[in-house]
TrEMBL record, chain A:
Upper classification of the organism: Bacteria, Bacillati, Actinomycetota, Actinomycetes, Kitasatosporales
Keywords noted in UniProt: Coiled coil, Electron transport, FAD, Flavoprotein, Membrane, Oxidoreductase, Transport, Tricarboxylic acid cycle
Subcellular location: Membrane
Topology in membrane: Peripheral membrane protein
Cofactor dependency: FAD
SUPFAM superfamilies for the chain: FAD/NAD(P)-binding domain, Succinate dehydrogenase/fumarate reductase flavoprotein C-terminal domain, Succinate dehydrogenase/fumarate reductase flavoprotein, catalytic domain
Protein name: Succinate dehydrogenase flavoprotein subunit
UniProtKB/TrEMBL annotation, chain B:
Pfam family, one: Fer4_8
Source species taxonomy: Bacteria, Bacillati, Actinomycetota, Actinomycetes, Kitasatosporales
Family: Belongs to the succinate dehydrogenase/fumarate reductase iron-sulfur protein family.
Cofactor: binding details: Binds 1 [3Fe-4S] cluster.
Species of the source: Streptomyces virginiae (Streptomyces cinnamonensis)
Keywords: 2Fe-2S, 3Fe-4S, 4Fe-4S, Iron, Iron-sulfur, Metal-binding, Oxidoreductase, Tricarboxylic acid cycle
Protein name listed in UniProt: Fumarate reductase iron-sulfur subunit
The keyword Iron belongs to this UniProt entry's keyword annotation: yes
Gene3D superfamilies, sorted: 3.10.20.30, Alpha-helical ferredoxin
């Protein structure tokens, strides 16, 4: 075991982690631990754009953006946070441009903007052009630009280091962060990083679904590390299903495709979104469009022999426009489906896309131990966190924005905290929990296999807690997850070595997914209403009287060592907007 | 809306899509042996699946010790460049049906970088070369209040080289790099190009001097391996030529 000492440690090198690192490195001795090389992070897969009311191409302002964010989130958004997001969006985009990001340009040479789902002028009057973009590679450009600036600032990276445990120590009756424990892929060595401040920026958890736009590596490691140490997870039942994933594969085809004029059609060629969202049509918010697609499929208007998908039709758009604005996604269709989008529609289905919930934080990125108490020295930003700016449903282009605004904020706040505070003493045997876990998996002779359990988990999640949920389906999921968690105790790995043991790490990642799946399902079961991405067929309406509140899930450990999920609730911050019915 | 070609594909697919394929993989694990060796695996797979899916099937069902990097699985993160049937490709962007599955599919680590285990190589020298070319925007004077302006044409000038995902397929296909690891390699030059031709940047001269070095751009012998290898379709050789020309004319 090795011990390292840094003022600030950042877990993750996606957009949020690197945006934080650029700030923290200037102000404190900072290390970034990342399980992937920074440029491999899934921020690079983001396509469509980043929202900011620059008003470069038409009238717009941050207040309209705030309203759309709150409404898009079905009023579960904390409105003070949404206001910060929308206001600081403008500088966040300009910061990136100054760092070198090659945005698409207007004829005047300013940053070009395009339409995106749920973004409107004047509180829902009509779609507005608010998304700043670089073709359909906006995330790639953000990730590259931030990495380039990390190189410029001399940010110190520990690549292929997997953070597996969060160290919390009680001092004067207050739980504080003392550092993290990481596993080095190349050598199998365990490292303890003592740090005054820790920022989690480790991304989402989408891999507990089968059809997903998320990378294999998005396994919720940060959420799991904090949850296991008794910290809450907020609003985990809210997961976004993006309407347009490539049929059966889940690879994303950006909403920008509909922003450019693409149309969803059923097997009769009908533009069905006109029925469900007369004003915004194909650009209604994602939860609405995903449900509409499945309604078409269930009512027998799906395409293909099994009637299990619909079409994204781009054939009426000029090939030059597709080449200029949507080059990557049209190539995905050619590569993976052998389809030419100039002439043929693309088969799509909703795909598990984005975790609205996560580690609860305030607007400075400080992690909460309960509804109000912060954990000194602990921060989170990006998809791992829940501020909550996305509420029950995130608007497209608001996450690339979130990672920049709250990545920057948490980087500044954490570095300030490390300047003003001392190290917290490490607990005795700080690496114990990780060492035990690794030893157990390496030595286990159990008969269960990681791949089998993972597939069963994914199939259960797809079948039972996706776009449509009922008491019955969620209970099925809860039971199945409990069974899988039990079987997980008998999981073994074939690779017993120390060097690049990805077999072992996949087993650990599965453990994280199982814990988080349980939290999601239990949270979903208790929410007897429909709101944003959480749609209960048995409770099809939003219930503001009983459920206008955030879920806070805690891990409870019984006397016999068994664990369960305990739910609590936290009020929503409402400033300007009273809940209204959501129509598009 | 045209009649979807997919219905035909689907019918074909309905009649058992699976075929038996042999993967012939060059294994190496210094914890076990200093020598590498070829190992064959047979799997059932739909030829419309990716080589990465095949590797996963092997790892998940047959041999958990098989080691490779991967993340996004759709050609965007640059993790899984490898030599497939002797050519550098991304495993997640190569469909089985496109590489003659009748014969064994050979898979080995990319060349010119030290193999750490199976298909995993040491990427540090590759990233070091990248960092050495000042891959970031350099500007002088005060920051403008709003964005810097750039015309659509100026933006287009370096569009091709912004697409790079640092997968190393190009650099590790370059015979000059195989013979001499000191050569910056095509990927570093691509990333220098991305800034040299950006109208907002003011450090073009410095970058050109770096590339004027003995290990720099003049080592390129224009064999086009890099352009063929690039999974992002970047015209790598053309970018290198443009840098060479800029070094001569000092105009960019
Ligand atoms: C296909 C796709 C398209 C999208 N398009 C858009 C869009 O157009 N607009 C938009 O606003 N949003 C979009 N999103 C959402 C947005 O891209 C993501 O939510 C956002 O990029 C997440 O950034 P992040 O920094 O939080 O996490 P990531 O970029 O996922 O980075 C996570 C980092 O954490 C590290 N990490 C993870 N676990 C560990 C561990 N245990 N130890 C150490 N390090 C760890 C990883 O190495 C990685 O560096 C899209 C998402 C997807 C999947
Ligand atoms: S230029 Fe192409 S082949 Fe080379 S590193 Fe970049 S993406 Fe990979
Ligand atoms: S896995 Fe990301 S490029 Fe292949």
């Amino acid at each position: 075991m090795k011990i390292h000492k840094y003022d600030t440690v950042i877990v993750g090198a996606g957009g949020a982690g690197m945006r934080a690192a650029i700030e923290a490195t200037k102000r404190s001795r900072t290390a970034v631990l990342t399980k992937l090389y920074p440029t491999r992070s899934h921020t690079g897969a983001a396509q469509g754009g980043m929202a900011a009311a620059l008003a470069n191409v038409e009238e717009d302002n941050w207040e309209w953006h705030t309203f759309d964010t709150v409404k898009g989130g079905d009023y579960l958004v904390d409105q003070d946070a949404a206001e910060i997001l929308a206001k600081e969006a403008i500088d966040a985009v300009l910061d990136l441009e100054k760092m070198g990001l090659p945005f698409n340009r207007t004829p005047d040479g300013t940053i070009d903007q395009r339409r995106f789902g749920g973004h409107s002028r004047n509180h829902g009057e009509a779609p507005v052009r608010r998304s700043c973009y670089a073709a359909d590679r906006t995330g790639h450009m953000i990730l590259q630009t931030l990495y380039q600036n990390c190189v410029k600032e001399g940010v110190e990276f520990f690549n292929e280091f997997y953070v597996l445990d969060q160290l919390l120590v009680e001092e004067d009756g207050v739980k504080k962060s003392a550092g993290v424990v990481a596993y080095e892929l190349a050598t199998g060595e365990i490292h303890v990083f003592q740090a005054k401040a820790v920022i989690y920026a480790s991304g989402g958890t989408g891999k507990f679904f089968k059809v997903t736009s998320n990378a294999h590596t998005l396994t919720g490691d940060g959420q799991a590390a904090c949850y296991r140490r008794g910290l809450p997870l907020e609003d985990m039942e809210f997961f976004q299903f993006h309407p347009t994933g490539i049929w059966r594969m889940g690879i994303l085809l950006t909403e920008g495709a509909r922003g450019e004029g693409g149309i969803l059609r059923n097997k009769d060629g009908e533009r069905f979104m006109e029925k469900y969202a007369p004003v915004m049509k194909d650009l209604a918010s994602r939860d609405v469009v995903s449900r509409s697609i499945y309604t078409e499929i269930r009512e027998g208007r799906g395409c293909g022999p099994a009637g299990d998908h619909v079409y994204l039709d781009l054939t009426h758009l000029p090939p030059e426009q597709l080449d200029a604005k949507l080059p990557d996604i049209t190539e995905f269709a050619r590569t993976y489906l052998g389809i030419e989008p100039y002439t043929d529609p693309i088969p799509i289905q909703p795909t598990a896309h984005y975790a609205m919930g996560g580690i609860p934080t305030n607007v400075e990125g400080e992690v909460l131990a309960d509804n109000t108490t912060v954990v000194p020295g602990l921060y989170a930003a990006g998809e791992v966190a829940c501020v909550s700016v996305h509420g029950a449903n995130r608007l497209g282009t608001n996450s690339l924005l979130d990672i920049n605004v709250f990545g920057k904020r948490s980087g500044i706040a954490a570095a300030k905290y490390s300047q003003e505070n001392d190290f917290v003493e490490l607990p005795e045997n700080p690496a114990q929990q990780v060492a035990d876990l690794v030893e157990h998996l390496r030595n286990s002779t159990g008969k269960e296999r990681v791949a089998d359990l993972r597939l069963e988990l994914q199939e259960t999640m797809d079948a039972n807690v996706m776009v449509f949920r009922t008491e019955q389906t969620i209970k099925t999921a809860v039971e199945k997850i409990a069974e899988l968690r039990e079987r997980y105790k008998n999981v073994s790995v074939q690779d017993k070595g120390k060097r690049f043991n990805t077999d072992l790490l996949e087993a650990i990642e599965l453990g994280n997914l199982l814990d988080l799946a349980e939290v999601m399902a239990v949270s979903a079961l208790a929410r007897k209403e429909s709101r944003g991405g959480h749609y209960r067929e048995d409770y099809p309406n939003r219930d503001d009287v009983n459920f206008m509140r955030h879920t806070m899930a805690y891990r409870e450990v019984g006397a016999d060592g068994s664990d369960s999920v305990r739910l609590d609730y936290k009020p929503v911050v409402t400033t300007r907007y009273q809940p209204m019915e959501r129509k598009y | 809306m045209a009649t979807p070609t997919l219905d035909k594909m689907e019918e074909a697919a309905a009649a058992s899509p699976y075929i038996t394929v042999t993967f012939r993989i060059r294994r190496f694990n210094p914890e076990i042996s200093d020598e590498s060796q070829w190992q064959d695996f047979q799997i059932e797979i739909d030829p419309k699946e990716r080589v990465l899916d095949g590797l996963h099937k092997i790892k998940w069902d047959l041999d958990g010790t098989l080691t490779f990097r991967r993340s996004c699985a759709h050609g965007i993160c640059g993790s899984d460049a490898m030599r497939i049937n002797g050519k550098n490709r991304l495993a997640c962007k190569t469909l089985i049906k496109d590489i003659n599955p009748e014969k064994p599919i050979t898979v080995e680590a990319i060349k010119g970088l030290t193999v750490m285990k199976d298909l995993v190589v040491d990427m540090e020298p590759f990233f070091q070369a990248y960092r050495d070319v000042m891959p970031f925007l350099v500007t002088k004077g005060n920051e403008p209040t709003r964005e810097r302006l750039q015309s659509a044409e100026d933006r287009e000038r370096f569009d091709d080289t912004t697409k790079c995902i640092l997968c190393a397929a190009c650099t590790s296909s370059c015979p000059v790099f195989w013979n001499d690891g000191q050569y910056f390699g095509p990927a570093a030059i691509v990333n220098a190009h991305r800034f040299i031709f950006d109208s907002r940047d003011e450090a073009g001269e410095q970058r050109l001097e770096i590339l004027n070095d003995k290990d720099g751009v003049w080592r390129c012998r224009t064999t086009f391996n890099c352009t063929d290898a690039c999974p992002r379709g970047i015209e790598v050789t053309k970018a290198i030529q443009e840098v060479k020309r800029a070094l001569i004319t000092r105009r960019f």
